[in-house]
Amino acid sequence: MLAGPPQRERTVRLGIFAVGKMKRGPEADLVTRYLGWAEKLLRQSGVSQIMMSEWQPNQANDAVERKRTEGDSLIRALPPGAVVVVLDERGKDSTTDDFADWMARQIDDRSTQDLVFIIGGPDGLDENVRQRADKLFCFGSMTWPHQMVRVMLAEQIYRIATILAGHPYHRR
């Protein structure tokens, strides 16, 4: 029997959608560093790339209108079928190991092509974004500036990459 053409390995794209612009400085440097390291390690696990997309906060005077407009824009930008993780102070607090297990399942799931994390702006996120989420996650019940949330998310993605790769960065 003749073998067919080699099967192309399925990969997952990981995206971070954030309202607000990251200014140059130590926080941006940390995000770049952690995501660069994570991308290299995650290739072994089937992640082809990590992309960061930023939205300029809406300038409407009304906070409800700002959140609605930002939320609509974020949802329209999602790739079809994306698994969506919304970072929200009302989300579920999780351990790194539990989050790593969840993320590994998403990467291994044959139907997952895009895994997108969403970080809201100064007013938070509209309810329609939370309703679209496959997972609501928080870094505790405190409110964090979006720059710090990006650093914490980037570090956790890197930490998860080290767990999946068996790297000693995350000691159990």
Describe the structure.
- This protein has 172 residues and is α/β, with parallel strands linked by helices.
- The protein has a single domain, classed as 3-Layer(aba) Sandwich (Alpha/beta knot), CATH 3.40.1280.
- Helices cover 41% and strands 21% of the residues.
- The chain has helices at 26-42, 63-77, 96-108, 127-132, 146-165; strands at 12-19, 47-55, 83-92, 114-119, 135-137.
- Helix 3 links the parallel strand 3 and strand 4.
- Mean pLDDT is 86; it is low at 4-8.
What's the helix-strand series?
Answer: EHEHEHEHEH
Per the CATH scheme, the topology name is Alpha/beta knot
Rg, Cα atoms, Å: 17 Å
Separation, N- and C-terminal Cα atoms: 48 Å
Q: How many E strands?
A: 5
Give a brief rundown of this model.
The chain has 172 residues and is an alpha/beta fold. It has helices at residues 26-42, 63-77, 96-108, 127-132, 146-165; strands spanning 12-19, 47-55, 83-92, 114-119, 135-137. The chain is globular, with a radius of gyration of 17 Å.
Topology:
Layout: E1 12-19, H1 26-42, E2 47-55, H2 63-77, E3 83-92, H3 96-108, E4 114-119, H4 127-132, E5 135-137, H5 146-165
Parallel strand pairs: 1-2, 1-4, 3-4, 3-5
Task: Jot down its keywords.
172 residues; alpha/beta; Alpha/beta knot; 5-stranded parallel beta sheet; 5 helices; 41% helix; 21% strand
